[in-house]
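Support reply, case 0932

Customer input (verbatim):
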Amino acid sequence: MAQKRAKTDPFEDLTWGDLEEWAGAAIVSRGRSYQRGRRVQNLARSGSGGLVAWVLGTHRYATVVEAKDGNLTSFCTCPYGGTCKHAVAVVLEYLECLKQKREVPAVAERDRRLRLLDESRQEEDARDEEESWDEEGEDEEYDEDGEDEDTVRTAPRRAKKVAADTLSTFLEQQSKEQLVTLLKEQAKRHPTVRQDLQDRRNLSSGAVKKLVKAVREEINELDSKPDWDDDWGGGGSSGDYARIRERLEALLAAGHTDEVVSLGEELLEAGTRRVETTDDEGETAEEIASCMDLVFRALPQSSLSPAEQMLWAIDAELDDQYELCRGAEAFWKQDHPAADWNIVAEKLAQRLKQYKATKGEDSFSRSYRRDHLSDRLIEALENAGRHEEIIPLCEREAEETGSYLRLVDALKKAKRWEEAEQWIYKGIKATQKRWPGIAGQLRTALRELREREKDWPRVAAFHAEDFFQQPELHTFQELQKAAERAGALTNQLLAFSRRQILQIRMIDLNVVVRETEGMLRRLLDEAIGLEVVVGDDPGFVNADPTQLQQILMNLVVNARDAMEAGGKITIMSQAISVEESLPGMPEDVPPGSYVRLSVMDTGTGISPEVLPKIFEPFFTTKAVGRGTGLGLATVNGIVHQSGGRILVESRVKQGTAFHVYFPRFEGTVVASLQPAAT
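Our regenerated output:
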């Protein structure tokens, strides 16, 4: 049974910074690589709300992560002494499950992983504190050897926290002179310690240029340094960016944000080249991305103007081919005023106008890069409130790069259906030989337009073609559904020709309206409101309930299509008495007792010239392909077969009202299954 996530999930709001604070940037980068490599298996929630999973390395490790009092703790059967990459991978996999809305099951009470973790904890508890201290550091960088990955390995964990507390106590007991001596000794023995102290001295003395120069030299060194692989042991190196990251962090903490941004530009360029020539499982890209995260943190604090900052981020993302600029997401979540977006839009529009392909670039790559640039321009125009410029831009770019689908989507969003269809045909013709994939997507967009119009025979034709090209169960089922809907159109033809066999019985029209309301709401978008009002007294009529629903659907769809800019539809049903004949169009309503069904809209209305023709079969004011002209003809046929009358009132730019009068039931039901006279 799947376990539902609690409202106060301690993992849900974790950020990348939280993970780096917990495990360190290098470990988080490696954990990310493991998660993206799909090495986390059988993820589950423990009874305490923690996470349990298998993680595949060279061995298979049982890993558990808990969140208590706002702090993350982990335990793993791997040899690593602290928070390991396997634990980070488990957390990242869980966050991905949340993002994809995939439920995570509860761990079984007798799950093997729980037993292995418990045994590993017992082994750790059996070791004394002294042994933990002696072994601290031996396993900080361990190599997973080449044993079978299906084996399960349990290994002692080092008591890192105990060792850290012991070290802290030791240092606090030393005098200033002793600490200075200790630092000198460590600096002499360990170059990284000496370099860190030198960096700190440069920052404190104002020699920032020296530190920037050192970072730049390290970037260039890693760019030129070849990879090496250990073909025997499975190890190797593609460069260690930890030092660059530490120095960028130091510069950022000291407020030297401009320097961090400048170095970030060089790092992105060199890092892209590095990733292109590195054969690993994504570790190099993760290392560089963790450095770029710091650059995007520095960007809002830099001396660049807000618009320049936005352009810098856009340029970085346009040049990013390997997800090195994930840190930009946090930058874009900040508030950016419309005035700044306007400046960005102007700059990007100028760039697009002057865009030239790079030397040796093929036409597809050129179109791809240009489309990305125009995508960002469209985003800037939207956020600047310059919506009227978007579709003209999309039209120009469609013919330039073949981006017809983007244009069609923009036209559909603006509810400019006829233009969307015209561009679909134009796009298919322009792309079917050169870019058949785009032509296929446009064909799908055309089918979706037909589905919106409920032109089921044409929809069935599309699915028939799909089935003939790919005779599979899925394509057959889609064809079958479309054919059934097309068959319903035949029933409509029979209805308006008065040859439909109706299943007539006594039915309360108020009940039919209420039961159909939910289905009707699904036909409308958010811009159109629906109000339903039914009378207090029962409205019994002799009619086919299915056909009553058909009347409601056709009238509501007709009203919807008359309000592309939005509006309101009102449905009313009530029992009334007509004392004198009601004059109307297309016919009068004689005196009598009726149940009246009204569907009223605030749409464009119907002109006096068109009004007399609306019930004629196949008459439509819509563009070719946008309607069958049978909707109102079907309604008229059903109403007359049921012994009713229909009146219509309309005013241009004010709306339309259809009133259907059904004779109110006042006697014995007589069901007629014979075709109506012709």
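We compared this against your earlier run and they match. Two observations from our side: The CA atoms of residues 613 and 619 lie 7 Å apart. The chain is about 55% helix and 15% strand. Please reopen the case if you see a mismatch on your end.
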